[in-house]
Amino acid sequence: MFLLKRFKNSGGPPESPAPPAAVPAMDQQNRLDRLTACEREVFQLLLQGCTMKEAAVRLNIGYCTVNTHMTNIYRKLNVNTRAQLILRYQSVKKEMNP
């Protein structure tokens, strides 16, 4: 009942969260420059839609190593999910695969 009253008093449902903001190209490139060579390889495979297991096989490295690289990529590029990574850096994917 409390929530119903609160909902009526607030003037309606809460607003939806804003979509992820696009990263300016200059900032995007600065962030990408922070990646190591191995992280770049994993980054490219993630943008292509590979799973972590597939990336490990393609790069001939362990799954845990790919997971570590992915964690570092997320931190350096300031994203929390693969979806955010793809949405924010899809322009990089287009440049890599014309």
Give a nutshell description of this structure.
The protein is mostly helical. Helix content is 68%, strand content 0%. The N and C termini lie far apart (56 Å).
List the helices and strands and how they pair.
Layout: H1 2-10, H2 25-33, H3 37-47, H4 52-59, H5 63-77, H6 82-96
Helix pairs in contact: 3-5, 4-5
Uncertain residue ranges: 16-20
Distance between the termini: 56 Å
Query: Which strand-content bin applies to the residues?
Result: under 5%
Helical amount: 55-70%
Radius of gyration (Å):
19 Å
Estimate the mean pLDDT confidence: 79
What is the element string, with H for helices and E for strands? HHHHHH
Q: What class, by secondary structure content?
A: mainly alpha
Largest sheet: none
> What is the number of strand segments?
0
| Mass-distribution shape | globular
Tally of separate helices: 6
Description of the structure:
The protein is an all-alpha fold and 98 residues long. The chain has six helices and no strands. The protein has helices at 2-10, 25-33, 37-47, 52-59, 63-77, 82-96. The radius of gyration is 19 Å and the shape is globular. 11% of the residues are buried.
